[in-house]
Amino acid sequence: MSEEPLTQRLQAGARQLNIDLNDVQSSQLLAYLALLQKWNKVYNLTAVRDPQLMISRHLLDSLSVLPFLKSEATRLIDVGSGAGLPGIPLAIMRPALVCSLIDTNGKKSRFQQQVKTELGLSNVEVVHARVEDATVSPADYVVARAFAAPEVMVQSASHLCRDDGRMLFMLGQDTHDFSQISHDFCLETHVDIQVPFESGQRHIAICRRTDKDRPTLN
Fold first, then answer.
1. Does the residue 216 lie in any domain?
2. What is the pLDDT of residues 4-32, one digit of tens each?
3. Which of these, 60, 20, 9, 83, lies nearest to 194 by C-alpha position?
């Protein structure tokens, strides 16, 4: 498949998400996709093989998070990053945002490192470790893409979140009971999103630390 149809699909999807995508970002995102296709033949990084589907299910799905990230944010941690999703696309779109990618799978971490090197992504930090053992600076956003149930995620990764930070969950199904999450966190935002060229609906939930100093209302 030629590159032009993929470029058109990526740019059309970005427009649907109301995201400005310049030529440099578009080229880097497609270069990342090409590396993913190449490594996937040997390391089986993703079950998605069709480049057209990779555009929507990987790139556009990752970019759908952008409108929810505050412009002043400086650090993001992608937990259970796998092939670098959504961390690498977000790092491409936000060069000033340091994106730490945490994963326990050595092959996936090596792929992430290769992408960082080949694309010159100085704002990407590859962390090969368990979430509970990861020693990285706390972030404005801790993002999980179908990594674990939110209540499990909060228990294992809350130490990675700044006191005024947020935990952002990319969900495929709206079946999670957020009343079960740790009392240290509470649901702040829960919205439905539509990823371009995908029929199924996605959901984004954002949790913040509970304001323990707020007076209790009787």
1. no
2. 699 999 999 999 999 999 999 999 999 99
3. 60
